[in-house]
Amino acid sequence: MLIQCATEIVIHLSLPLVIIIAAKLTIMESLILILGAFLIDIDHLFYIFIREKIFSIKKIVQWGKTEYSLHRPHFFVFHTIEVLCILIILGYLTNRYLFLFFMGFVTNLLMDAVTYIYFYRSWKPWAKYFSIIWLLKSKRVNEPTI
Hints:
By secondary structure, the chain is an all-alpha fold. The protein has helices spanning 2-23, 27-39, 42-52, 57-70, 81-94, 96-120, 124-127, 132-137.
């Protein structure tokens, strides 16, 4: 489990590092991009607090280990194409730093897809959770969206 978590961190840092080098970002811009690449996952906590009603750090870690081993997908609001498009456009139109922060979200989403394919050999169980529209059209969803 620890090796898999370390591997995921490396995977999630790889694309931002490529962008940092290719775009010749400043230190501040680089930090903002990397921060966005990791802070997108705050919606995992939203899910755990709202849907699972877990507030103990120990229980959150235990829940995470169980879910990770079961490969059970969930809806995470910041991990949807629609929300990301709105945020990227908003950032592009308003502020370079905000744009880079939200581009970090995009790198996380892309690396999540790589992780699913690499570790789980499939992205299909998660695919419907990458789109609010697809999720709402799906009649097989048994969990509320948050």
